[in-house]
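Go through the following before class.
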Amino acid sequence: MATRVNCPSPSTLLCFVTMLERKAFRWPEYFKVNILFFALAALSQSLHSIILPVRILDFVSEAQKNTFLGIMTFAGLFIAVLYQPVAGALSDRASTIWGRRRPFIMLGICTLILCVAGVGLAPGYIFLFITYLLMQFAGNTAQGPYQALLPEMVPAEKRGRASAIKNLLEILGGVAMIGVASVLITRYETTHLAVWLWLTLAAIIALLCLSLIVTLVWIKEVTPQRTTPQLSPWSAIRRTFRLDLPRDRPFLWFLLSRALILMALGTIQQFALYFFRDVVGLENPAEAAFGFLGVAIAVVALGAYPAGRLVDRFPRQKVSAMAAGLGALGIILIMILPKEYHLILIPAGLIGAALVVFATANWALATDLAVPGEEARYLGLANMATAGGAALARLIGPVIDFFNARSPNQGYQVMLGVCVVYFVMGGLILLKVKGASPEAG
């Protein structure tokens, strides 16, 4: 596919240099703009799937575990919804000798490391709750500015592949840390020896430190020609959530659809451990949850590059809608199949295929819809849908407990039915997103 370059300057030399830079974009560059996502996903996936569900049981009763887990994660993700676009907008306007994005990345990751240690030090639910909120501030201080590197450094016609590498690294980081956590936390849960918890947290901290060092050394920021007016930090914050309705209507439909589909995926991830323990009746639900997620993740890993090529050839909104339909089919199979572990691994593969295609196509679509010069703000708003969908997914925790109290495990069937609705509605809304194509930009 030919590379298209839109040159804002009439200078022939500037246009020639820009063409050379884009032509020189090679495989290592895909990893440069995405390596930090490996560690962030390792933290997020293991924390929400394994560590928090087990750690909360140190402080609350069995009958209230879903409620307290849902409240905590909802509050933290609500912070992420509001704060990540602000961090991104501030970095869009920043001007330092270290670049626009790097100071935010360093501050956020260093603070996040301290918060991970706080999870192990928590003497009670309130302390753990506050630590989790601080983790959201720290993580989004880094992630909001960092994710703007992809649209800044990657040509539009290669963003599908770059998004696929992002998703692959997130999946590999998540599955690696979930695997470690499922083994170590199981020993902590059965023996109550703190050493197993601290080994888990130490592995996460080591990943964060290493990825931060690699990012700061490897990334050479691009300083684009400014197309937006210089604003004070306070003015930038006030403009963070302001959108031009006629221009940004496709982006608003995109946000709504993304939130709905990620609500379905987030619900499955968050409550998988309890589902396998209560419904399937497994003695080791942490390892079972890892196995279920592992099958889905294996499909994602194998399909990441083909998905990237697919997204660079076909309309991204339609590919995303197709993935939503596939996810709905996977959930329906979980509902109707006998509740046997090996049978449930079949729909896990379908959900994995839906995840890889959706994540790749949808993030490439987000980079296409971002306004040049304000990439971090727009992608922060896109992650409002990500965090918002994840936060709203947690609110089903009390619903699960309510229906389980009326009839054994009825709450989990309600949960699965709601996920099907999320997938179908999100897929239909995606079809209203117009104006983005693989060659946009």
